[in-house]
């Protein structure tokens, strides 16, 4: 079970961080923001993408979108968001609960600089009603993430953004 693997991850690597389970769903950015009393920008959504032969998790601000040009410039290929079944098979987390914690096998993790404007962010924690509160720097440290700038400013989001309605965290 995914929530159990996330709890085990934090028990082993950061026992001071509590996995928060809510009665209500936090499977989308607006639901997560409401459930945890934060702005949607403070939700750290995790999307699973493939670019060429590389599969990676990109964690970014809840209102950011992938910028195809920035992504292609950084990784040499256009990002393709994975479907729900593929995401769950790869991460063990259901769509709406995808996070960079408690993964069954190593996956490259990238944190977008959009997260750095917050002292604390709220990523999912392996279930559609589970999350943690963590500083972006600590999340990157715990997951071995690399910082990248692949997000598009929400105000300028347009046709060049990777458009997808599926929310993976």
Topology overview:
Blueprint (H helix, E strand, L loop, with lengths): L1 H12 L6 E2 L7 H8 L6 E9 L2 E8 L3 E2 L1 H8 L4 E2 L2 H8 L16 E5 L9 E2 L6 E2 L4 H8 L2 E3 L2 E2 L17
Parallel strand pairs: 2-7, 3-6, 6-9
Antiparallel strand pairs: 1-8, 2-3, 2-5, 4-10
Task: Describe what you observe in this structure.
It is a single chain. The protein has 169 residues and is of the alpha/beta class. It contains 5 helices and 10 strands; from the N terminus they run H-E-H-E-E-E-H-E-H-E-E-E-H-E-E. It has one domain: YbaK/aminoacyl-tRNA synthetase-associated domain (YbaK protein, Alpha-Beta Complex), CATH 3.90.960. Helices cover 26% and strands 22% of the residues. The strands form 3 sheets. Strands 2, 3, 5, 6, 7 and 9 form a 6-stranded mixed beta sheet that branches. Mean pLDDT is 90; it is low at 157-168. It comes from Xaviernesmea oryzae. This is Cys-tRNA(Pro) deacylase, prolyl-tRNA editing enzyme YbaK/EbsC. Residues 150-169 are annotated as: Disordered. Residues 24-141 form the YbaK/aminoacyl-tRNA synthetase-associated domain.
The rounded distance between the terminal residues' Cα atoms is 16 Å
> Low-confidence spans: pLDDT under 50, at least 5 residues?
157-168
Q: Could you give the count of β-strands?
A: 10
What do we call the CATH topology?
YbaK protein
CATH superfamily: YbaK/aminoacyl-tRNA synthetase-associated domain
Q: What Rg do the Cα atoms give?
A: 14 Å
CATH architecture: Alpha-Beta Complex
Q: Approximately how much helix is present in the residues?
A: 25-40%
Secondary-structure element string: HEHEEEHEHEEEHEE
**Sheet of most strands:** 6 strands, mixed
Oligomeric state, counting identical vs distinct chains: single chain
Mean residue pLDDT:
90
Beta-strand percent range: 15-25%
Tally of discrete structural domains: 1
CATH class identity: Alpha Beta
Shape: globular
Structural class, judged by helices and strands?
Answer: alpha/beta
């Amino acid at each position: 079970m995914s929530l159990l693997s996330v709890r085990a991850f934090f028990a082993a690597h950061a026992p001071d961080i509590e996995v928060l389970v809510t009665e209500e769903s936090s499977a989308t950015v607006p639901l997560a923001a409401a459930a945890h009393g934060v702005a949607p920008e403070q939700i750290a959504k995790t999307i699973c993408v493939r670019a060429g032969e590389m599969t990676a998790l990109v964690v970014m601000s809840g209102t950011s979108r992938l910028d195809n040009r920035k992504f292609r410039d950084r990784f040499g290929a256009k990002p393709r968001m994975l479907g729900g079944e593929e995401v769950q098979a790869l991460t063990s987390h259901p769509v709406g609960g995808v996070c960079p914690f408690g993964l069954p096998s190593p996956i490259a993790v990238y944190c977008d600089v959009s997260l750095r404007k917050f002292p604390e962010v709220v990523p999912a924690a392996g279930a559609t009603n589970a999350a943690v509160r963590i500083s972006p720097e600590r999340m990157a440290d715990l997951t071995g993430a690399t910082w990248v700038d692949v997000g598009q400013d929400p105000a300028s989001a347009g046709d060049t953004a990777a458009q997808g309605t599926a929310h993976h965290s």
